[in-house]
Design brief:
Blueprint lengths: L10 H10 L4 H17 L11 H9 L10 H15 L16 H7 L4 H16 L9 H13 L6 H18 L26 H14 L15 H20 L10 H4 L2 H14 L6 H16 L5 H14 L8 H7 L5 H8 L1 H11 L4 H19 L4 H5 L7 E4 L2 E6 L10 E4 L2 H14 L22 H16 L7 H13 L4 H8 L4 H8 L4 H26 L1 H8 L5
Helix pairs in contact: 1-2, 2-4, 6-8, 9-10, 10-12, 12-13, 13-14, 17-18, 18-20, 18-21, 23-24, 25-26
């Protein structure tokens, strides 16, 4: 049996093809079982799912085997069987190739670093199998490999693999004698329009630095802000000034004419740079555009000392460009939707213990186990105290985890918190137990010297938020199947609490450290609508039952006659 149009075939057609293939009975059983199980994981019947390699790869990569109840080994085996089955329908590229390299390629890669050689070997084996050596390779051959890994292989993230390979190939082209003179284009992932300060006259940077010093409270004349800006705020303001100057330059104003901050807030220039940002957003405003407009208005008022008419006009522009506060984004609401179901909430809240069990059974090296234990401890902390990822990564055993009698508290000073509100949480016993397990049994394997960091990195210093947060997200997805980031723990905590206690915003305001209850209600208003509706319905039902019971006691004849349709 053959299929002339595999792109239109379904997994049901693939199962039929397996049954007619020249395979042993056991091989057919295993392949059919794998195809049916993966179809179920994809949420459809085999006849409803196209037997398209690229489409199947993308959909399967969006699933978590552990969340579906499959071990990583079983999942990999099923994908391998699916690949073997698809090979009955169309040519398939193997997940791993052992084809020998042509001597010419082997000579070129001998002596390369391990990582570079590892990245290049699959491509070089592909070329060697086709008999294409360094002297004959053409761009079309490289593109054929790219097409093969994207369309004829089930292994995940082919675009990422190609991007890494492209970087390695181009590096070898520059550095390795005899490497083919082909340079692979790497498209820019995003347009970078931020110009360095050196592009502008030195006076602009000097004026910007003076203004930032004023915000930092260095100006003792009494003309500065009532409260000095925090370092993180100063960093943001410096970026906003630089990006505003860059936008103005891209709008057509020559850089040599941008001499000071006063030039940024001239009404014509102010409007021009804001139009540049709007154009980059498809003509629509955004929170960033509104924030820059408001910030430059403040610069005009407090630093440049613009006249009142100009400031009033800027205020109107800021009002028009500032999007209304809509609370939680639609994307975050969708990500939290699985937590409407009790079993998903239980799976989410049980994450630290689940990971701990896996670590205790893990046969890998102590250091690799320690990294996983570190993630379990971080998740336990975020569930008990939904702090921001920067504060999480920077936690210190000495200053932030404080014992008071038999209790353990998480304390972060106001100066270290984004909005200046101090953090002081008593950690529950389950969280303390996970932390103790991690600190005593696994954290020592992450250290090469003295360190007080709760989550130490390679050098003993606190792990960077940009490293810790993706590790947390990956672990949550692996065990629950939910796309999750570290900041979403704050929203998840709010949702889980408000689902159980609808309307109790003040509690969440204090937990999340919001200064205003309006901030909390703007984020979560509506998030607990489903649970509030269920709570409302339960109260009405309970009231109905109580009143019906009372009516039966007082008017039994009336109730009986109505029940059976009789006269009253």
């Amino acid at each position: 049996m053959t299929l002339t149009q595999p792109s239109r075939a379904s997994l049901a057609d693939l199962i039929a093809l397996i049954s007619c293939a020249d395979l042993t009975v056991r091989q057919k059983q295993d392949m059919r079982s794998a195809v049916r199980t993966l179809a179920k994981a994809l949420g459809g019947a085999p006849e409803e799912i196209a037997a398209d390699v690229a489409g199947l790869r993308r959909r399967l990569n969006g699933l978590s085997p552990e969340a579906l109840g499959h071990s990583k080994g079983r999942w990999a085996n099923m994908k391998s069987l699916l690949g073997n089955a698809l090979a009955l329908m169309q040519p398939m590229m193997p997940g791993r190739s052992a084809s020998p390299l042509l001597p010419a390629w082997d000579a070129l890669v001998t002596g390369l670093g391990v990582d570079r050689r590892y990245r290049l070997l699959p491509l070089l084996r592909f070329l060697s199998q086709a008999g294409i050596g360094p002297d004959k390779v053409a761009m079309a051959d490289l593109d054929a490999y790219r097409q093969a890994i994207c369309n004829d292989r089930l292994r995940g993230e082919p675009e990422k693999a190609w991007d890494a390979l492209t970087w390695m190939w181009n590096a070898c082209q520059r550095e390795v004698n005899g490497w083919p003179p082909l340079v692979i284009d790497r498209p820019k992932k995003r347009e970078i329009y931020l110009l360095p300060w050196s592009t502008f006259p030195a006076s602009l940077k000097q004026d910007a630095d003076a203004y930032l010093a004023r915000l930092a409270g260095h100006d003792l004349s009494g003309d500065g802000p009532a409260r000095p800006a925090r370092p993180a705020t100063l960093k943001t303001r410096a970026y906003q000034l630089q990006v505003s100057a860059s936008a103005l330059a891209h709008s057509g104003v020559k850089t040599e004419h941008i001499l000071s901050l006063a030039d940024l807030v001239l009404m014509a220039n102010y409007q021009a740079l804001l139009r540049f940002f709007l154009a980059r957003h498809g003509g629509q405003t955004s929170p960033m555009v509104g924030q820059i407009a408001g910030f430059l208005k403040d610069v005009a008022r407090h630093w440049v000392k613009a006249d009142e008419a100009t400031v009033v006009k800027m205020k109107r522009i800021v009002s028009n460009l500032t999007p209304p506060r809509r609370g939680m984004t639609a994307k975050n609401r969708e990500r939290l939707r699985p937590l409407d179901e009790a079993e998903n909430v239980a799976r989410f809240l049980g994450l630290p213990d689940r990971i701990r069990q896996d670590v205790d059974k893990d046969k890998r090296s102590p250091r690799l186990k320690a990294v996983t234990a570190q993630i379990a401890a971080a998740i336990a902390l975020l569930q008990a105290a939904p702090i921001r990822r920067k504060n999480l990564a920077a936690l210190d055993l000495t200053h932030n985890l404080v014992s008071r009698g038999k209790r353990l508290y998480l304390i972060v000073a106001d100066a270290d918190v984004k909005n200046g509100e101090p953090i002081d949480f008593e950690l529950p016993p389950q969280t303390v137990e996970i932390l103790a397990w991690y600190v005593r049994a696994h954290r020592p394997h992450l250290l090469k010297g003295p360190s007080d960091a709760l989550f130490p990195g390679a050098n003993g210093a606190p792990k960077q938020p940009g490293t810790l947060a993706p590790q947390i997200a990956k672990a949550v997805f692996r065990y629950t199947g939910m796309p999750f980031n570290a900041h979403l723990f704050r929203h998840a905590g709010g949702k889980i609490f408000l689902d159980a206690r609808p309307g109790q915003y003040e509690v969440m305001r204090r937990v999340l450290g919001h200064r205003s209850i309006a901030t909390t209600t703007s984020i979560y208003a509506g998030a607990e609508t489903r649970s509030a509706g269920a709570h409302f319905a339960a109260v009405i039902a309970e009231r109905r039952r109580a009143l019906e019971g009372s009516a039966k006691t007082k008017h039994p004849t009336l109730i009986k006659s109505k029940k059976f349709g009789g006269d009253t």
